[in-house]
Amino acid sequence: MPEGYVVRALREADAPALASAYARNRTHLEPWDPRRDESFYTEQGQRVAVHQQLSAVRMGLMVAWLVVKDGELVGRVNLNNIVRGALHSAAVGYWVDAAHLGRGLATAAVEHAVEEARSMGLHRVEAGTLLHNAASQAVLRKCGFTEYGLAPRYLFIAGLWQDHRLFQRILHDEPPA
Ligand SMILES: CC(C)(COP(=O)(O)OP(=O)(O)OC[C@H]1O[C@@H](n2cnc3c(N)ncnc32)[C@H](O)[C@@H]1OP(=O)(O)O)[C@@H](O)C(=O)NCCC(=O)NCCS
After folding, report:
1. Which of 60, 95, 99, 131 has the largest CB neighbor count within 10 A?
2. Which residues of 137-165 are buried (b: 16+ CB within 10 A; e: fewer)?
3. How far is the CA of 176 from the centre of ligand 1 (A)?
4. Residue 87 within any structural domain of the chain
5. What is the CATH number of the domain that holds 43?
6. pLDDT higher than threshold 90 for residue 177
7. How many of the other CB atoms lie within 10 Å of CB of 133?
8. CA-CA distances (angstroms) from residue 74 to 17, 25, 90, 100, 132?
9. Of all atoms in ligand 1, which is nearest to the CA of residue 136?
10. Would residue 172 count as lying in a domain?
11. Distance, CA 85 to ligand 1 centroid (Å)?
């Protein structure tokens, strides 16, 4: 990570910091995220969300990290939708606080997630971006992802079913463990 920043695993106690980070970054994240209800921006809403996410982590369905600087939460990266079997894949999701953009944080966080995916034996990491999300596409290309297609009306983002560019990075060609 860039100097002063660390990536660490999500914990139950992070709910208040997440509520505050999501409230602070509401206009920054809204165009790229699913619609959130008001409870999402509260400590109680984040307590429920974090609890569900850590249950999914225990079940091997996701891995969740925070990017932190001097104890302040300034970003997130997740491996979501972990599937084993013939697919052996996960989807990477990420955001960086509006006050910390352009310092290589997303690139470093995505690289971290990719290395974890590799150590978990996954074959592939994927990501989908809105067509006009040039910043996210730049992050993925810097991290060695290649664009492999376009999915029409793929995700319900900011209140609409929106087309997405699909990216993937293949990690190895060994058989599934
Ligand atoms: C996308 C996002 C995570 C990038 O975070 P970041 O920490 O600023 O990214 P980095 O500093 O690692 O930048 C990586 C590259 O993207 C480029 N980049 C950043 N913003 C850009 C933009 N608006 N247009 C084109 N390229 C851009 C940078 O120049 C950099 O390339 P370089 O090192 O060759 O100059 C951040 O803008 C964000 O949180 N956006 C909202 C949430 C989001 O879109 N998440 C992803 C959903 S798919």
Report:
1. 95
2. bebbeebebeeeeeeeeeeebeeeebebb
3. 32
4. yes
5. 3.40.630.30
6. no
7. 17
8. 10, 10, 23, 7, 23
9. 1
10. no
11. 32
Residue 76 lies in a domain: yes
List the residue whose alpha carbon is closest to atom 12 of ligand 1.
Answer: 104
For residue 148, which of 132, 171, 162, 164 has the smallest C-alpha distance? 164
- The per-residue pLDDT of the chain, averaged, comes to 97
Q: Domains in the chain: how many in total?
A: 1
Q: Is residue 31 domain-resident?
A: yes
> Can you tell me the mean pLDDT for 140-161?
97
Which distant-in-sequence residues (6+ apart) come within 8 Å of 115 by Cβ? none
127: left (phi over 0), alpha (psi -120 to 50) or beta: beta
Using one digit for the tens of pLDDT, what is the confidence trace for 42-101? Answer: 999 999 999 999 999 999 999 999 999 999 999 999 999 999 999 999 999 999 999 999
Tell me what pLDDT residue 134 has.
98
Whether the per-residue pLDDT at 165 is higher than 90: the answer is yes
Kindly state the percentage of the chain with pLDDT values over 70: 100
Amino acid of residue 82:
I
- CA torsion sign for 77, 80, 84, 88 is negative
Q: Is 166 in the pocket of ligand 1 (CB under 6 A)?
A: no
Share of the chain above pLDDT 90, in %: 99
Full-model pTM: 0.97
